[in-house]
Amino acid sequence: KGEVTGLGLNEKVEVSNRGTWEKADVTGNSWKLDDLDTHTATFTYDVRVTDDAGNVGANTASQQVVIDTEGPEITAISIETDNSSVDIDFGEAVYSTDGGSGDLAKEDFKLKITSGVATVDATPASISKSGTVYTLVLTLTGPVPNGLEVLTVKPVDDSIYDVAGNEALGGGSFDSISLVDQTGPTAVPTITAIEV
Fold it and tell me: Is the Cβ–Cβ distance between 32 and 14 less than 8 Å?
């Protein structure tokens, strides 16, 4: 829908999004066209004014419509220096349903560590949110992390969606981070002599 000013008696508003022009409904200075097409990719609406003789007005309008078909991905990840929690940022609002509602729960994420010596519980101990950033509290077990551990955060299947209903599938560039090395040095110093 949109606005039109200065529309003449035998003039009409036409709209196209795929090369075929359709007459829009005009009421006063407002026009409207119900688009019944199913769009699966980005497209553009073009609007023009024509008259009964087939003349096309010089003034036109265009509006691109972006169709969101990509699921949300983690766009940033960081870890506390004591390895107690990890912050992940989706860069957009995410929900627990494909209808664009519901808060995420700790059970919506699965955690895994590869390499190193420490292990992690597969489900975060707790979750909190600030904007698009989620803080997942970790439960580490086994030896103290030596910094070789790589923590991966993945969404559980059918659990995280963006406002358009696209599911988060994981596997992005920012879903993994190394734990901080908390293993102290093991070398044993000695004093063999003191010179004065």
Answer: no
Kindly report, residue by residue over 46-87, the tens digit of the pLDDT: 999 999 999 999 988 998 888 888 899 999 999 999 999 999
State the DSSP string of 22-86. Answer: EEPEEETTEEE----PPP-S-EEEEEEEEETT--B-S--EEEEE----PPP---EEEE-TTSSEE
Q: What is the pTM of this model?
A: 0.72
State how far the Cα of 142 lies from the Cα of 84, in Å rounded to an integer.
14
The three-state secondary structure class of 145 is coil
Q: What's the pLDDT score for residue 139?
A: 98
- Beta-bridge partners for 56: 50
